[in-house]
Amino acid sequence: MDFSGTKLICLVGRRLVTLRRDCDPSIPWPGYWDLPGGGRDGDESPEACVLRETAEEVGLTLTPNDLIWRRFYPRPVAAWFFAARLPESAAADLSLGDEGQALALVDPAEWVLREDVIPHFRMRVAFAMEELHDL
Fold first, then answer.
1. I need a surface site. Which of 31, 32, 53, 135 has the fewest CB within 10 A?
2. Cis bond leading into 76, ω under 30°?
3. Measured over all CA atoms, what is the biggest interatomic distance in the chain, rounded to whole angstroms?
4. Cα separation, 18 vs 96, whole angstroms
5. Is the CB of residue 73 less than 8 Å from the CB of residue 9?
6. What CATH number is attached to the domain comprising 19?
7. Which regions of the chain are under pLDDT 70?
8. What integer pLDDT is reported at residue 134 of this predicted model?
9. Total domains in the fold of the chain
10. 23: buried, middle or exposed (CB in 10 Å: 19+, 13-18, 0-12)?
11. Residue 69: domain span
12. Which segments within 21-77 are labelled E, that is strand?
């Protein structure tokens, strides 16, 4: 299946890993809170893409076994969303990469209500949290 990129709903303990995008007006949603992830390189798989982007953006080295949930969204851009649940101790491994202004751990229920979150990601995170509740 063709896709442009990936995003990760990464829970560290009970908190969501989120990044504030750069304020560059040439990028979509400048200054908004985002999720780790990004564009596909070459013909990499969705899993390889999200694992690479997560390591680059927030310093977490995950494995395919860490990915406990996945959904494909064809619009507005064809993208795979994944979820991972890590222990609270993983917070010590977080580090902001070369992109973004800030890295934060926040309550997912509060994150989805924020006005400065990429709008279509709010519903995707809320949906994932509902499904993850049973896992």
1. 135
2. yes
3. 40
4. 10
5. no
6. 3.90.79.10
7. 134-135
8. 65
9. 1
10. exposed
11. 5-132
12. 33-34, 37-39, 67-73
